[in-house]
């Protein structure tokens, strides 16, 4: 053989063979420890931190000098969350890095600006609606007291009480819609409020003749809180509404241009997204006005027409909350782009239209035959016709909004809420330890 095997028991075997046996072990002192072995020898196993899934390393005490910085310890008590332990905290955390005092003041002012608008035109608009609401509610309360004292017929007293109450609720609803339009920057809602205020003006003019027919002594000054005659009070209301209408038109034009630029900054220059957003705004506005006219018609029908022994009385009572729930469902269906919820809402709109058409036909058929419809058929007809028209338009825009699902509008609205500070995910703390940098 060319090569002679070298066995381990020979004296010079350690120096002459090239391939050592796998069973051969060198002395422990002659083997150099690897870097990983040194790390494993002097470092304890990693302990999981309960807050951010980071690791805390304990320092050894084997005669080596201690480090200046102690071991990492949690800053708060351990807790667990079923939803997510590493991305969500129930307890409030300080922002890191901490904001300067100047930036903190800006942040506080921005939070207040969501309630108090920063635009002069928006402030004047809200102030105008507030003044109009306060004056008209005061006069309506005075008229309600005077009508109840001056009217002899209980049926007329009940009718005027319902009408005045609905008129007062309409002013409260208008103030809420105006404040919401400023906060949400819904430019189309300002246009709708201008039309709604015009309807209130028309109703206030009609109310003058109705109160004169019911009240025997409309020129009297007694029986109320103030000494102003009823005729003067009924004239003041349309004058206030007309002045507010002019202010709405002027301020609305200014606000339309201001909000148009802000919406452009949020949504960008994509015309397709802007068109989808316009349909979404109209849809949301229609739903809110549907709620008012649903409630107004139901209250009149319950208090002025139906009796407790009539089966329609209980059907109307059940239909009122169901209709409100249906409209709320339509709002969330469009917001979350849920097609099943939208299909349910559209089916409910068809059912509501059938219900109002039935009520309208009944009112027109019995307006001359039934004493209950003789004095209130005009108001019921007006509310039912407006409700049917609103439901028809709402059904059309619900279809348009459904077609826009998955086309980028939802993401654009999320970016808008993120920029405006409505997304709470940006308030998360970067680390449980303010002195530690981490990449989460």
TrEMBL record:
It comes from the Eukaryota. Keywords: Membrane, Transmembrane, Transmembrane helix. The keyword Protease does not apply. Residues 418-440 have a biased composition (Polar residues). GO terms for cellular component: Golgi apparatus. Residues 1-28, 58-91, 415-440 are annotated as: Disordered. InterPro entries: UPF0658_Golgi. The keyword Hydrolase does not apply. The chain crosses the membrane at residues 160-178, 190-208, 228-253, 282-305, 311-328, 340-361, 381-401. This is Uncharacterized protein.
């Amino acid at each position: 053989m060319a090569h002679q095997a070298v066995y381990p028991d020979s004296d010079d075997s350690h120096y002459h063979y090239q391939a050592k046996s796998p069973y051969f072990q060198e002395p422990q002192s002659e083997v150099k420890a690897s870097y990983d072995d040194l790390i494993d020898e002097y470092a304890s196993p990693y302990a999981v931190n309960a807050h951010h899934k980071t690791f805390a390393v304990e320092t050894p005490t084997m005669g080596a000098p201690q480090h200046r910085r102690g071991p990492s310890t949690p800053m708060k008590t351990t807790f667990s969350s079923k939803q997510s332990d590493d991305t969500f905290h129930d307890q409030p955390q300080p922002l890191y890095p901490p904001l300067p005092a100047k930036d903190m003041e800006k942040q506080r002012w921005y939070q207040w600006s969501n309630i108090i608008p920063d635009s002069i035109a928006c402030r004047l608009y809200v102030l105008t609606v507030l003044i109009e609401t306060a004056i008209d509610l005061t006069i309506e309360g005075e008229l309600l007291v005077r009508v109840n004292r001056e009217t002899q017929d209980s049926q007329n007293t009940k009718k005027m009480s319902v009408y005045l109450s609905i008129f007062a609720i309409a002013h409260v609803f208008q103030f809420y819609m105006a404040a919401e339009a400023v906060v949400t920057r819904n430019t189309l809602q300002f246009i709708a409020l201008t039309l709604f205020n015009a309807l209130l003006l028309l109703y206030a003019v009609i109310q003058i003749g109705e109160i004169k027919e019911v009240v025997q002594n409309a020129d009297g000054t007694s029986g109320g809180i103030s000494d102003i005659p009823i005729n003067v009070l009924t004239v003041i209301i349309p004058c206030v509404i007309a002045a507010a209408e002019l202010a709405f038109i002027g301020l609305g034009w200014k606000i339309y241009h201001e909000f148009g630029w802000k919406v452009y900054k949020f949504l960008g220059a994509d015309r397709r997204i802007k068109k989808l957003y316009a349909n979404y705004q109209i849809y949301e506005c229609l739903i809110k006005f549907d709620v008012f006219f649903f409630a107004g018609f139901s209250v009149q029908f319950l208090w002025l027409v139906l009796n407790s022994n009539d089966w329609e009385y209980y059907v109307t009572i059940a239909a009122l909350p169901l209709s409100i729930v249906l409209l709320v469902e339509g709002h969330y269906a469009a917001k979350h782009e849920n097609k099943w919820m939208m299909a349910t809402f559209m089916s409910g709109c068809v059912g509501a239209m059938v219900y109002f058409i039935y009520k309208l036909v009944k009112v027109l058929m019995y307006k001359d035959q039934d004493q209950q419809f003789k004095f209130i058929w005009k108001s019921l007809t007006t509310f039912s016709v407006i409700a049917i028209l609103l439901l028809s338009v709402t059904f059309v825009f619900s279809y348009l909004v459904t077609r826009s699902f998955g086309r980028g509008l939802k993401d654009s609205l999320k970016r808008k809420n993120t920029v405006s500070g409505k997304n709470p995910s940006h308030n998360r703390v970067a680390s449980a330890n303010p002195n530690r940098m981490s990449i989460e």
